[in-house]
Design brief:
Elements: H1 8-17, H2 22-40, E1 43-46, H3 48-68, E2 79-83, H4 110-117, E3 121-126, H5 160-167, E4 173-177, H6 184-190, E5 193-196, E6 217-221, H7 224-234, H8 252-256, E7 270-274, H9 284-299, E8 303-307, H10 315-330, H11 368-383, H12 386-399, H13 404-425, E9 431-435, H14 451-456, H15 462-467, E10 471-478, E11 491-498, H16 503-516
Parallel strand pairs: 2-3, 2-4, 7-8, 7-9
Antiparallel strand pairs: 1-3, 4-6, 5-6, 5-10, 9-11, 10-11
Helix pairs in contact: 2-3, 7-16, 10-12, 10-13
């Protein structure tokens, strides 16, 4: 096995015994990026020299820990990649947008502070859909990331760069953000593990906001144990973040292993299978792989029963009212005045400003207020991409006078009904399982001109975000039916959902399934 193929826990064991050095591990990752990323395009920014300096420091710290027998931080010397939505002190953070192309944060997000304290080494920032708005990473203002399993296909989104980097062994783990499936869906399409924690379990401080009542940071990893390790490192209360919940952080790795040594590791676990998650138009190979995975859970001792989540069909329209409404408010701060990109304007050269995105001449800008308006209009017109503009328009409309009650308020009421569906289901079962995505990865450009079809790619990952519950996507096979995908052998994800703050049970079921199968060990041939 090459060093870049290691999992986090395997690398930790080798670092602890002195079998490898962090410097060698980091160099292996950087060489892998240099070799592979020109085809995959997972990274927006790579900070090689800083990473190597951090690795040398980690090796010195490991020497001290081995000498005095003290326990080293959980991630000391482990290379990581971070979605460009998450602020990193001194490292450019763009959110995949032109409007933040030159933004270098003066501080770290809370999750970065926690990972730094744990000793992890930042390799670089990964590509994403602009402001996390998308399901394919085609909405990045820089370039499209490609799926390592088929370079003509999307890796999912919006955390597609993070998922592609993990799948291609260009990092040992990555962080993404999940607003409506943006960690789980790309994980499902790339044969990686993607975990969305309970809303409030992980701090959003320093995470560039898309939809504040939905956004949540989560890990993308090579296996379930790594996901448990990373969640343990980033979870916890943050007094700087109003929605952060002050509840104890359990030992996720220990909880994950409950029953693992038993012949029936999932004995007494009740698994719900929602009838609404097996729908017409779903790729047959995906349905077959998920059904097979459910049979594996039964063979491990779990009992399964059908449950109903009757408001599932309303999750998509509800999400696409609430999320754009919150986005329209959050993105108002990008005005070309305070920070970030500003459209070119020189008041000394005349009294008109040309909008570089549209080519039309704007109003007279000779006076201060008009000049400010024109700068803002030109900056937002040129700085935001088409999908961001679309969602700002949708959100502003839903919040406008005369439409607030009819759209936004009604969507919030339906959101409550969706949460109540899960509450009732969890009275009967311990976890709920289903597909992560209705299809395998689609071709680049296939849905880019059809926003509704693109939105449907997240149909199975929206309800959990609206309800605020945890969910994980794990590899469960490859599609063996090419009816919709046009090609055989693409990854399929199994989604496991749990009660709020019951990540331990979700991880336990995921770990038991993973140990009974080998899907997660399969790698793309790059």
């Amino acid at each position: 096995m090459e060093l870049y193929q290691l999992t986090v826990h395997a690398a930790r064991e080798l670092l602890q015994t002195g079998g490898i050095t962090s410097l060698d591990l980091t160099r292996a990752i950087l060489e892998r990026i240099e070799k592979i990323d020109p085809r995959v395009h997972a990274y927006l920014t790579v900070i090689a020299e800083r990473a190597l300096d951090s690795a040398r420091d980690a090796d010195a710290r490991w020497t001290e820990h081995r000498r005095d027998g003290s326990r080293a931080p959980a991630l000391l010397g482990i290379p990581m990649a971070i979605k460009d939505e998450i602020c990193t002190r001194g490292v450019r953070t763009t959110a995949g947008s032109k409007i933040l192309h030159n933004f270098v944060p003066p501080y770290d997000a809370t999750v970065m502070e926690k990972l730094n304290s744990a000793g992890a080494i930042l390799i670089g920032k990964t590509n994403q859909d602009e402001f996390a708005m998308g399901s394919s990473t085609e909405n990045s203002r820089y370039f499209t990331t490609r799926n390592p399993w088929d370079l003509e296909r999307v890796p999912g989104g919006s955390s597609g760069g993070s998922a592609a980097a993990v799948a291609a062994d260009e990092t040992l783990f990555a962080l993404g953000t999940d607003t409506g499936g943006s960690v789980r869906q790309p994980a499902g399409l790339t044969n990686t593990v993607g975990l969305r924690p309970t809303y409030g379990r992980v701090s959003r401080f320093g995470v560039i906001a898309f939809a504040s009542s939905l956004d949540q940071v989560g890990p993308i990893t090579k296996d379930v144990r790594d996901a448990a390790i990373i969640l343990g490192a980033i979870a916890g209360h943050d007094p700087r973040e109003a929605t952060s919940v002050n509840v104890p952080v359990p030992d996720y790795v220990a909880a994950m292993r409950v029953g693992a040594m038993h012949a029936s590791p999932l004995q007494n676990i009740r698994v719900g299978v929602p009838r609404e998650y097996f729908i017409e138009g779903m790729q047959p190979g995906v349905a077959r792989a998920v059904r097979d995975a459910i049979h594996v859970l039964e063979s491990l001792g779990a009992t399964t029963q059908e449950v109903s989540l009757p408001h599932t069909d309303y999750a998509l329209p509800t999400y696409y009212l609430i999320a754009p409404a919150e986005a329209s408010a959050n993105l108002a701060r990008y005005d070309g005045v305070k920070y970030g990109y500003r459209a070119p304007f020189d008041s000394a050269q005349g009294d008109t400003l040309r909008d570089s995105a549209q080519g039309d001449t704007l109003r007279d800008s000779a006076q201060g207020s008009n000049e400010m308006w024109d700068v803002m209009r030109a900056t937002r017109g040129d700085g935001f991409g088409a999908e961001v503009k679309r969602r700002i328009m949708l959100g502003t409309y839903a919040l406008s006078a005369g439409y607030y009650d009819a759209y936004y308020l009604k969507a919030q009421k339906v959101r409550t009904l969706i949460k109540q569906d899960f509450d009732r289901a969890f009275e009967q079962v311990d976890v709920i399982v289903g597909p992560t995505s209705p299809s395998t990865a689609f071709k680049i450009g296939e849905k880019v001109d059809d926003p509704l079809q693109m939105y449907l790619a997240d149909v199975f990952t929206l309800a959990q975000a609206l309800a605020g519950i945890p969910a994980i996507s794990i590899p469960c096979g490859f599609a063996d039916n090419a009816t919709l995908s046009g090609v055989e052998g693409l990854p399929v994800g199994l989604q496991i959902m749990g009660r709020a703050f019951d990540e331990p049970r979700v991880l336990q079921v995921a770990y038991a399934y993973e140990h009974a199968t080998d899907w997660h060990t399969r790698k793309p041939q790059l």
